[in-house]
């Protein structure tokens, strides 16, 4: 009978991996807390309509990548492909705006998209992200970008490429949209099938297409920043002044539009060079109309999302030492059945006191047990053989120096010894 393996685009996290993930998760929670964000956890699946209305029906995600299914009542449900729409839904459903002021939230968890797996991209993947609702102030935009950049800097990734653009608002974007359609209609034959279909419905999506022929066709298009209204132009200029004052180095990217229809004004990405073609560590922007699109009152918002897998690829490739392996503080090596029986209650009692302690359960030789302890990175090994057991003692071996010290086989004595060695 053939073995069953994980579905395409998914993977298992083994113990060595999960230790790194937990360490990274702790750092994520820490920095969001420092910036005043509260954690929110939303369901893994939502009503499909939420993503159709929120993300946009002409996006690749809604058209081709969502995992959608019907429940027993024939209601259409979708595994969440991103986090912002769910956060906005929860913001409205629980009236988080009722307390007044600005609402600052962050999330962390798995997302799902049915796309071709490649480096840093999976069908089940993990994201963390920030959402700020209730303020139009460009200082919020600058804070969100600074939060993302500061986190990567703390992890030792300092050579970041921050790309920035403004895609306007419903007042000025139609002007650019008309110019774009007018310029590209004569070039329709050179566009890919997706872009041909989107030209009249959502022409800005053509700027995000990676097809070489589409990039050639849009190479000489007018800049969207040239058609911004006074409000959008002023907002973008203030944001740039704020970023310069921090300072955060960035460059303007007129082709940056992001993949969701809900964006307005500010859009940005933070890139690293370790990921090849898929080199974006995080991306986001302002979405001042999304809350209203989801059934609420007009409420400005901005946020970003970042991939955990991509970040780990960068950290691993650079051998950045930000992870701290969870090695046992003591390995107890019993030799013989009598020693095994004597060690077991001591093993449990030490763990109950909060010490990380391991032992042998295979009845192996001392040499084999020392080899295992060394592989684990344990600094102390307690050896209990027949002689030690008769004398009610345990031999403590310091692995780095091979120095050994005999101490009483007593819980309090062992605890005191561990404290002095820590």
Question: What does this entry look like structurally?
Answer:
This protein is elongated. The chain starts with 14 loop residues before the first helix and ends with a helix. It is α+β, with helices and mostly antiparallel strands and 422 residues long. Helix content is 38%, strand content 20%. Helix 5 (138-154) packs parallel to helix 9. The strands form three sheets. It has an eight-stranded mixed beta sheet with strand order 1-5-6-11-10-9-7-8. It folds into two domains: 15-172 and 228-318, 2-Layer Sandwich (BirA Bifunctional Protein, domain 2), CATH 3.30.930; 330-421, 3-Layer(aba) Sandwich (Rossmann fold), CATH 3.40.50.800. The longest helix is centred in the N-terminal third of the chain and has 20 residues, at 15-34. The chain has 15 helices and 16 strands.
